[in-house]
Amino acid sequence: MDPIDLLGVADGFSDEERLIRDTVRDFVDAKVRPNVGRWFADGTFPRELAPELGELGLFGMHLQGYGCAGASATAYGIACMELEAVDSGLRSFVSVQGSLAMTAIHKFGSEDQKQQWLPKMATGEVIGCFGLTEPDFGSNPAGMRTTAREVNGEWILNGSKLWITNGGIADVAVVWARTEDRIRGFLVPRGTKGFTTRDIKDKLSLRASVTSELILEDCVLPADAVLPESRGVGAPLSCLNEARFGILWGAVGAARDCYATALDYAKTRVQFDRPIAGFQLTQEKLVGMVLELEKAFLAAVHIGRLKDAGKCRAEHVSFGKLNNVRAALDIARTARTILAASGITTEYSVLRHANNLESVLTYEGTSEIHTLVLGQAITGIGAYR
């Protein structure tokens, strides 16, 4: 039996899915894993990885056309799992580019907008971000205060967005704003007058990731900057659901890496003249971790297959995001106890994963919001207000 995949869940992957898994795993092991501890400690993200990630076809890989790979949802999920096995910041970079910014353009943009932006975003030549969250409106984006006024054939945007992944390095921002009658999406290229970004410093989580504030002060855009098919808050929320799907897979990768690290450490760390893996309390921790890991993995695969069959609902994604991130965070914390003092350094990944997962737990929908989504699904009664 494979001690990392005790149930052999990955045995059900197709040949193509295994190839994607192995290709992404080999890349991150060679290019990211040796350096990510330093990037995390320094609070930096190497944008120069973008073209290589694009060459692998990871940006918008689940989208059709415009240079995108057109892969299955499950294949995309597997890629997210391997990316986050190294660091949540790397998976976030890819998710925001593909599942948020590119998906918004692909779903709601004009043909000219798709042709202008998507091929260059697919290769990593152009980086995008997704400006929805505001300082006072996270879980309730419908209350956003950012406005867009149409004046003499142009759009004038005012407001700010906060906690925006990729914001400080993005070449184009998809910004959501309130017009006279509805919420709409706008493409705001870097360098547009009235548009600035400010990176958020001193983070204790997702340090190998760029997180920024977007500031719009009488930002003037041409008439064709609006995403013509974006009508109402349901448009950005549909993009968020795509990103959440990647998260529920990515959390499995982070959990797997923590468990594998703890298992390896326990088998080689000697106390009282024997490996600590031979002690009952350590085995209890390891067994508890692998149980939760495999259940999360099974949930991810099942939800992926539902999505490929066109049967996946938003509630399924909420189930996976809520369960898998919660399980991954518990696994990371337990793994840290096995590594003891060694677990607090960047030499090992477990506390870095735990810190990152604290952010993953609350972004793209907090655990409370996903709980209420599922509560409504099982009772038929909404409890948001």
TrEMBL record:
GO molecular function, one term: glutaryl-CoA dehydrogenase activity
Cofactor: FAD
Entry-linked InterPro entries: Acyl-CoA_Oxase/DH_mid-dom (IPR006091), Acyl-CoA_Oxase/DH_mid-dom_sf (IPR046373), AcylCo_DH-like_C (IPR036250), AcylCo_DH/oxidase_C (IPR009075), AcylCoA_DH/ox_N (IPR013786), AcylCoA_DH/ox_N_sf (IPR037069), AcylCoA_DH/oxidase_NM_dom_sf (IPR009100), Glutaryl-CoA_DH_mitochondrial (IPR052033)
Pfam families per the UniProt record, alphabetical: Acyl-CoA_dh_1, Acyl-CoA_dh_M, Acyl-CoA_dh_N
Keyword line: FAD, Flavoprotein, Oxidoreductase, Transit peptide
Family that this chain belongs to: Belongs to the acyl-CoA dehydrogenase family.
Protein name: Glutaryl-CoA dehydrogenase
